[in-house]
Design brief:
- By secondary structure, the chain is of the alpha+beta class.
- It has one domain.
- Helix content is about 40%, strand content about 30%.
- The protein has a three-stranded antiparallel sheet with strand order 1-2-3.
- Helix 1 crosses helix 2.
- The N and C termini lie close together (about 10 Å).
- About 10% of the residues are buried.
- The model has no long low-confidence stretch (mean pLDDT about 90).
Length: about 100
């Protein structure tokens, strides 16, 4: 397996996600997990911005459309939550 780009930060974020999942389990809407994860980030002292607007550039030109990330952690890691009972093949692309 390839080494993660931000290994230490990714480990902390993954740990926070696992704490939320262990506590709440499955079956809730993404908004519930987002709120719980925000509380866990605060507890774990993980710097984040929630619902961060990210500009999109195409051919060196900023588009009018933008992407809103669920979280941007450490000012460099985009985290998009998914609340599904199983991952489809297409969903895996968003995870990698």
């Amino acid at each position: 397996m390839d080494k993660l780009l931000y290994e230490e930060e990714t480990y902390k974020i993954t740990g926070a996600c696992m704490k939320v999942h262990s506590s709440l389990g499955s079956g809730f809407l993404e908004s519930v997990y987002q709120e719980a994860l925000e509380k866990q980030f605060i507890k774990d002292k993980i710097p984040y911005k929630r619902h961060q607007k990210l500009n999109i550039v195409f051919n060196n030109e900023k588009l009018k459309k933008y992407f809103v990330a669920d979280f941007v952690c450490y000012e460099k890691i985009v985290l998009e939550l998914k609340a599904v009972s199983f991952l489809r093949k297409d969903d895996e692309k968003a995870v990698t």
